[in-house]
Design goal:
heterodimer; A: 321 residues; alpha/beta; Rossmann fold; five-stranded mixed sheet; four-stranded mixed sheet; B: 351 residues; six-stranded parallel sheet; 13 helices; 8 strands; globular
């Protein structure tokens, strides 16, 4: 069935609520309103107010309460309205969700999925376009997932619901309704911790994820570049072997993400490739990312987010070296 | 127009006299003796921890001395099925709830292995960031209600913690969701060096309950019977919603072993509070009723010290396994983390 990402996520949540009696969804406006992006639309009517409910407006309270629910045996799936507001719940995630298993030597655990929209490109107000994946990945103890299309979104969310770990599930706002894909009916899983080789190639490896996947695909298609495109799907834990094996084959590495350049996922990927395959590289590793400062107001975003032109130029340069 | 007032509850005064009208009906002599023993036990445990820390045999420790009535009085109000959510100073509650003493010492030596939560303990782990445990308590209470369990959550926070956003968010959520939460403020007058009056302009901390639309009460936190009564009543009414209980007590010692309170508070103030010692007044009550004497006190002290020493000895035998750090982060071992573990093992980093 052809679905956009919002419908695919809604379908996944419906399946999770049906299969897992411990699952509860809550957050700001997720009930009657179905969330500001309508990802939870209709779920309250279908599953009742004790499974899908609105919460007071307080991100730390939402994530902290979810941790308590998980400790007590429920499987909470809180929604945070925008990643830019999730910093208010950051302490709960890094100080508790990420550490509870370790703190109690696995006698207590926190199975939960915090869903939140990320990244820009939709002309939203300040704080509505953040790409904070690396903050959560760096904390350790949190699984960080970011789909780039409807099929992956549904399969990754269902797979994440099988984990006993806290998962930060990042949904690129721009991709919510950008395109439809064929999405199978019923439950299926896209494995967590495994990158997706979107397209095979032999001259260059491009590692990307989230909003930049369609951008990279479009450039590679129009330029007919013999590039291997890897969509990380999961940021933490990183699928190092898929990346390293690809780079050993292609001998060139370009990393593309929307989050700011400095200290980003690109730095981590580049370091790992340098450690494992530096002698097999025929050109310096390159990164294309947003500049190293916070996301601007919508008027400036077209000068900020990496464009097809920027990616195309990087490809030309790395193939020339 | 909104109207509200905060009641103050005292049952046992500083001389050991009882207000019969408020005396909890289920408090038998035997139970009071048992509670008194646990107050002594908690103070003895505290003294041992301080001495171990001073000898370099324990990491930083937050003493409880002075707060025994708040901790033991509340712990005895718990039913077995009720869930305990601590911050970092409720050693007396851990003790009274039967937390393994060996693990207690292993934890405070600095090893998570001591933080293992036994299956029937019905509690969460020590929580260091002030008030951040409060939303967990609300979430657990929500879960208990959601799963139709006949149980309540009893959580603890200090006076300083009531200034945190998490404190307010937690009681606010609990009010909206009408969760079975009993939230105890262990107001020991000091948040490290900041006195209660500089923490909040509110006349009582209990009145913060009004902002969340939940019940609030202030009790003499050095009064074993008052604390027991307030917490028991709150548990009994928890099905209809949460209660905030401010226990007014005093931190007789330092914030933690890294702190020197002589820098910021007077000896006179400490001496004033010493007169209201929570243990002395229960003892006065028990002695007057011929339920306790010095011989019993000595025998109890000896028995407790023996248990403590055995546990300390067991804890000293504990051998940390560095692999356990890597193995308890996720429900599975990611390849990248395994590579780090293998590298550390191969290089013998831990020898």
């Amino acid at each position: 069935m052809q679905m956009n990402m919002v419908s695919a996520l809604n379908d996944a949540l419906s399946i999770i609520l049906k299969q897992d009696s411990k699952a509860v969804i809550f957050g700001e406006d997720v009930g009657k309103d179905g969330g500001v992006f309508r990802v939870t639309d209709g779920l309250q009517a279908k599953f009742g107010e004790d499974r899908v409910m609105d919460s007071p407006l307080a991100e730390s309270g939402i994530i902290g309460a979810a941790i308590g629910m998980a400790l007590a045996g429920l499987h909470p799936l809180p929604e945070i309205q925008f990643a830019g507001f999730m910093y208010l719940g950051f302490d709960q995630l890094v100080s508790h969700a990420a550490r509870y298993r370790m703190r109690t030597r696995s006698t207590l655990k926190v199975p939960m999925i915090v869903r939140t929209p990320v990244s820009g490109g939709v002309r939203a107000l300040e704080h509505h376009s953040e790409s904070p994946e690396v903050l959560y990945a760096h904390a350790g103890g949190l699984i960080v997932v970011e789909p780039s299309g409807p099929y992956d979104a549904k399969g990754l969310l269902i797979a994440a619901s099988k984990l006993e770990d806290p998962v930060v599930f990042l949904e690129p706002t721009k991709l919510y309704r950008l395109f439809k894909e064929d999405v199978p009916e019923g439950a299926y899983e896209v494995p967590i911790g495994k990158a997706n080789v979107v397209k095979e190639g032999s001259k260059l490896t491009i590692v990307t994820y989230g909003t930049m996947v369609p951008v990279v695909k479009s450039v590679v298609e129009s330029k007919k570049t013999d590039a291997e495109i890897i969509d990380l799907r999961t940021i933490n834990p990183l699928d190092e072997s898929t990346i390293v094996n690809s780079v050993k084959k292609t001998t060139r590495l370009l990393i593309v993400h929307e989050a700011p350049l400095s200290f980003g996922v690109g730095a981590e990927v580049a370091a790992r490739v340098a450690e494992k395959a530096i002698y097999e590289l025929e050109a310096p590793i390159m990164r294309v990312a947003s500049p190293s400062f916070p996301y601007p107001d919508p008027g400036y975003e077209r000068y900020y987010v990496p464009t097809e032109k920027k990616v195309a130029e990087a490809i030309d340069k790395i193939l020339k070296d | 127009m909104f109207e509200g007032a905060i009641d103050y509850l005292q049952v046992l005064d500083e001389q050991g006299n009882v207000d019969q009208a408020n005396f909890p009906k289920d408090l038998t002599d035997q139970k009071i003796v048992e509670m008194y023993k646990y107050m002594l036990f908690a103070r003895a445990l505290d003294a041992k921890m301080l001495s171990l820390q001073r000898q370099g045999r324990a990491a930083t420790y937050a003493p409880l001395i002075g707060e025994e009535a708040t901790q033991i009085g509340s712990a005895f109000a718990f039913r077995q099925q009720d869930v305990f959510v601590p911050n970092f100073r409720q050693h007396g509650v851990f003790l009274a709830r039967g937390f393994p003493l060996d693990n207690f010492f292993i934890y405070w030596k600095g090893y998570e292995d001591g933080g293992k939560v036994p299956e029937n303990f019905n509690g969460t782990a020590v929580c260091v960031p002030v008030a951040s445990q409060m939303p967990h308590a609300t979430g657990i209470a929500f879960a208990l209600k959601h799963m139709n369990k006949d149980a309540a959550v009893i959580s603890y926070v200090g006076d300083g913690g009531t200034s945190e956003g998490d404190f307010y968010e937690a009681i606010n959520f609990a009010g909206v969701w009408k969760t079975p939460l009993v939230s105890i403020i262990e107001n020991n007058q000091w948040a490290i060096s900041v006195p209660r009056k500089d923490q909040s302009a509110a006349q009582t901390l209990a009145q913060k309950a009004f902002a969340a639309g939940i019940k609030g009460v202030q009790v003499d936190g050095n009064d074993l019977f008052a604390v027991y009564k307030a917490v028991s009543d709150a548990i009994a009414s928890s099905k209809s919603g949460p209660t905030l209980i401010e226990c007014v007590t005093y931190r007789m010692s330092m914030h933690t072993t890294s702190d020197d309170p002589t820098k910021y508070r007077t000896e006179e103030e400490v001496a004033e509070w010493k007169k209201r010692d929570p243990i002395a007044r229960v003892k006065a009550y028990l002695v007057r009723k011929n339920l306790w004497n010095d011989e019993m006190e000595k025998q109890t002290g000896d028995e407790q010290l023996k248990k403590i020493d055995e546990a300390v000895e067991n804890a000293e035998q504990f051998k940390p396994d560095p692999r356990s750090m890597y193995e308890n982060v996720y429900s599975f071992m990611p390849d990248t983390l395994k590579a780090e573990l293998d590298a550390a093992t191969a290089a013998n980093f831990w020898q």
